[in-house]
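Q: Could you fold this chain for me?
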Amino acid sequence: MEPNKQPINAAIKLSKRRLVLAFAIAGISDAIGAFATPLPPIVWVVDLATVLLLFMVLGRQWLLLPGLALEAIPGFGVLPFWLLVVGAIAVLGTPRPTFERH
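A: Sure. Below is the predicted structure, expressed as structure tokens.
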């Protein structure tokens, strides 16, 4: 295989340092979200800040969007969705499709 051609399911692995930071951000956000559930505006601000911080730490991750959508559902804030999202990114890596030249 040529160096510039990667398989379609190529994944970019993240460094341990970035993953640890992402897990810390997700854990803090989930803890705040669990206690602030009765105050939706605070939870919204925390979730938006979380997705922005995770975007900066992990890069462009399409898996962050379902996490943000699930956190927006009332009552679901008590579940650790951000930790699950970061765990999924850590396990699955960063799927990046590559396009072949014809």
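A (continued): The chain has four helices and two strands.
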